[in-house]
Design brief:
mainly alpha, 7 helices
């Protein structure tokens, strides 16, 4: 997947060239790790069907909220109360995911 990205976009390859010229590969390694994690999350979220793992699994702390797409959350979140949302937040360690959940919850009320 990462190799395909290097073939189709120049951002990763340009960063690699810059890092080689500076003789400091730290920034490139960070880029590669982020791309790998992003790809794994994307593939995992495709694997996890929200019918097989409903949002109630996130309430119970069985499935992290980051593995659900925005559409999956929006389609189910209106069925949950404030205590359910609190449980998901309590089980979520990433502040960005908490912000995302709150925004989606607010959007579902409009």
């Amino acid at each position: 997947m990462l190799i395909v990205e290097f073939k189709t976009t120049t951002a990763g390859f340009d960063l690699f060239k810059e890092c080689v010229e500076k003789d400091d590969m730290t920034e490139f390694y960070d880029y590669v790790v982020k791309r790998i994690i992003s790809g794994l999350k994307r593939q995992t979220s495709r694997t996890i069907s929200y019918t097989e793992y409903p949002l109630s699994s996130a309430v119970k702390g069985y499935v992290p909220i980051c593995l659900y797409t925005d559409e999956e959350i929006l389609s189910r979140i209106s069925h949950f109360n404030i205590n359910d949302i609190k449980s998901i937040i309590k089980n979520t360690s990433d502040p960005d995911q908490v912000k995302r959940l709150i925004k989606l919850w607010q959007d579902s009320m409009i």
